[in-house]
Amino acid sequence: MGKWRHGVILDAGSSGTRIHIYRWLNSDIARKKASETQLQSLPVLETDKKWIKKIHPGISTFGNNPNDVGPDHLEELFKHALRYIDPEDVPNTPLFLLATAGMRILPPVKQKAVLEQVCDFARKTTKFQLPDCGLHIQVIPGETEGLYGWIAANYLLGGFDKPKDHDHGKGHHTYGFLDMGGASAQIAFAPNATEAEKHANDLTLLRLRTVDGEPMEYKVFVTTWLGFGVNQARQRYVKALLQAMPDTREVPDPCLPNGLTLTTDGKPIETGLHEDGGHKPYLFGTGEFSHCIDSTYPLLEKDRPCQDKPCLINGQHVPAIDFDVNHFVGVSEYWHTTHEVFEMAHKDKAYDFKTYQRRAQEFCSQSWEDIQKGVEKKIWGKKVDETTALEVCFKASWLINMLHDGIGVPRVGIEDMPGSHNATKAMLKSTKDKGFLDPFQAVNKVGGVEVSWTLGKMVLYASSEVPPPSTEALAVGFGSNKPGIPEDFQHAGGSYKSYLSTGDDDWHDHLFSENPRRIPGFLIFVLIIFVIGFILCGRERRKTMRHKVLRMCGRGGRYGSLRSRRRGFPGKLFGLGTSPSYERVLEDGESTADFELGSVDSSSDNDHSDSSDGSRIGRTSGWATPQIKAGLVDPGTPTSWRKVPD
């Protein structure tokens, strides 16, 4: 087992699939190099922007043609991964494909067909570690996606490793997590002690493991709101507009810039041309942002019955949020909608409701003609095109309603908030070790690393590979908030893999490794020793040895041939026959960074990948190389690290 461990995860979303590669030190090496503080922290993961690649469309589009998902979609992503992972490391590199919103809407039969083809193609064309497709390749629910996001955010911000530096009050040191995509929105946070006790049955128990093997447990509330992502919220909004004015062809829309006309499914209409000659209704922008906020408020559906109080929106239960200690970070649309247009020149500025609403009002009150000119001149940056510009007013109003009237985030800049700060770039930089102090802040990257739920999944996996201090230690993963291992517990899937070293002091071991790059060197070494010994033994002995060799090779008759077999030549010299095998001579010790043990027995008594010890493939070998051939590229030193600099 080498110095570095790798993990590959494919985020299979609705619009495309993005592959992420992560790496971390083998736990034996990490412990040897760690300080006391680092021993009490989670494993350090590294990534690099070169290791990430996204292709379109999503795998859900293969629902009717599942056999095409491998050659037409996955092959390109697998080739990308194999550019950055050495062939010797591939058999010990876990592969995950976790699908989200797009696959969730497929019928179960089509879901199953696509996932089976993904597993089959990966196993046939690569040697990635894929012991259990049910665990490694699946459609994950929104709650799981939210939990992984919560792990990633706290991991990057330092909420796990430095609790004293992130003391938000009342002994609370973790951050809440908000995510919004096109179809759904998620929330994940650890309630304060009072709410955690009151709503214990609603919480998820999460267990991680630090570098020294000690458990790290958290009780987290996670829920998802289906239909509350920006795209589906927009669809519900347009439907409500049409129902309110059933006999009107030109339907006023305050959430569109003044003068912009769209079809009901969001396609621009040329000025003066009505869809289908005026027989179908269309939307006409009036650019009234305050009216837009009022019009999108009913989409929160706060009037739905609450079966388990308290509830926030859509009648779904959420424990009361204490914003004195629960500081939230928002990703995806929370970031894009607050920064792509209105905060382009203020990327490190904390969210300020008063300032944000004013800037949205200024933008959305412009005529569509003026906005188009601004887009052409790149006033709002290269990423803002006409599509972004025509959508952003609705998105901004929906975000404001979700944050403040839905989730209840205090309106910084209007409502007084004890301990809150309108953070500037300088303030954020000076308070990173103390944690973000506002009740909400939109983020995209922390320390150069994207806050992605895929990172959270891999952190969980990496921590599950750390050996526990005893056999009685509980497994890494998550499930119902019950003692021990509940029935619905989801194991992270990793297991301890020892690091076998070959330094200068054990050169004799790595000469006999099965690594193909070492065998020629070994043969040359043996040949040199033989020649030197032959020369030094003297003329008479050389003559005698020559005759013996000729007889043993068969030139001395049948007797010589049989005697050579009885004596075991050449078996003893090369470790064959009755001599000891050198297949696994490296039991202890450490290898240099460029040496891998040729064959590692990674079999386990446990046949189930979701066991407390995780999953392993039966046997891997450095001889095995992926069937998809790709040239190796030295990844170099990663530039993206997971921690905020101290």
TrEMBL record:
InterPro entries: GDA1_CD39_NTPase. ATP binds at G182, A183, S184, A185, Q186. Pfam families: GDA1_CD39. Keywords: ATP-binding, Hydrolase, Membrane, Nucleotide-binding, Transmembrane, Transmembrane helix. Gene3D superfamilies: 3.30.420.40, Exopolyphosphatase. Domain 2. The chain crosses the membrane at residues 519-538. It comes from the Eukaryota. One of its GO terms (cellular component) is Golgi apparatus. Residues 596-646 are annotated as: Disordered. Belongs to the GDA1/CD39 NTPase family. This is Nucleoside diphosphatase.
